[in-house]
């Protein structure tokens, strides 16, 4: 058997080393990618990327508005809480709109840095819902001004009430859809959101339906639940007289 020359041996050894390094670099890059993805999903808040922080803050602001503040305003306006009910309702809805506008800015930051989710259902539905939410104060004020003249429920009042119910329901559903697309390990968050939002939605819709039924059957002067805060104000004025 012929003896391998020194240059040939060195060339073979160099080839083996290069092949080994290339294999390790390939597997390392794959492993690094998956490890990086896992780390990206489990960053602590101080070292979390800005985009992920914005996504979490977007979810928090929108959840507070859709699941807590807006339903609370819809519930309180139906309860016999006194002459300031309308003002409390308006203040809560304005606060909710501020949360929505803040959440909208954060959501746009997430979508545009870098551009992503443009063709996803969550931002599309969200923009439609937010557009209607921004119109709600106009219909509410319009109804309030007309009620002072006609002393009965108005078309803008019906639009304000029922559009609010439909759009808020869609907004709550869209919040769950947003949790679905953000990460793969949010199953527990999705369940918690669904349970909490479902309970609040049932209470809110129950109070709304009950107040409408009571108004139709007995009129606002005979019931604890009132369909319109303006009706309550008129009742209290009559009682003071």
Q: How would you describe what is shown here?
A:
This protein is mainly α. 80% of the residues lie in helices and 0% in strands. The protein is built from seven helices and no strands. The longest helix has 36 residues. The radius of gyration is 29 Å and the shape is elongated. The N and C termini lie far apart (123 Å).
Write the layout of secondary structure elements.
Blueprint: H1 6-41, H2 50-76, H3 85-112, H4 121-150, H5 155-182, H6 187-218, H7 229-240
Helix pairs in contact: 2-3, 2-5, 2-6, 3-4, 4-5, 5-6
Keywords summarizing the entry:
disordered N terminus, mainly alpha, single chain, 241 residues
Give the termini distance in whole angstroms. Answer: 123 Å
Q: What's the mean pLDDT score?
A: 76
Unreliable segments (pLDDT under 50, ≥5 consecutive)? Answer: 1-7, 9-14, 16-41, 220-227
- Tally of DSSP helical segments: 7
**Main sheet attributes: strand count, strand direction, barrel closure:** none
Q: Could you state the order of secondary-structure elements as H and E? A: HHHHHHH
Total beta-strand segments: 0
Structural class of the helices, strands and pairings? mainly alpha
Shape: elongated
């Amino acid at each position: 058997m012929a003896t391998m020359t020194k240059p040939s041996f060195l060339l073979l050894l160099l080839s083996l080393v290069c092949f080994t390094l290339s294999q390790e670099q390939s597997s390392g890059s794959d492993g690094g990618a998956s490890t990086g993805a896992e780390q990206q999903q489990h960053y602590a808040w101080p070292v979390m990327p800005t985009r992920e922080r914005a996504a979490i803050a977007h979810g928090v602001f929108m959840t507070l508005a859709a699941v807590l503040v807006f339903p609370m305003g819809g519930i309180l306006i139906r309860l016999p809480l006194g002459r300031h009910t309308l003002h409390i309702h308006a203040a809560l809805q304005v606060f909710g709109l501020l949360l929505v506008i803040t959440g909208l800015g954060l959501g746009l930051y997430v979508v545009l840095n870098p551009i992503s989710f443009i063709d996803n259902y969550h931002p599309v539905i969200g923009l439609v819902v937010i557009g209607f939410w921004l119109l709600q104060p106009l219909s509410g004020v319009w109804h309030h001004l007309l009620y002072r003249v006609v002393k009965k429920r108005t078309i803008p009042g019906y639009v304000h009430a029922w559009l609010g119910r439909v759009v808020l329901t869609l907004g709550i559903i869209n919040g769950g859809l947003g949790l679905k697309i953000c990460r793969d390990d949010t199953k527990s968050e999705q369940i918690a959101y669904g349970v909490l939002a479902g309970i609040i939605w049932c209470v809110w819709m129950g109070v709304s339906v009950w107040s409408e039924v009571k108004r139709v059957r007995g009129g606002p002067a005979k019931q604890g639940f009132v369909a319109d805060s303006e009706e309550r104000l008129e009742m209290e004025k009559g009682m003071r007289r």
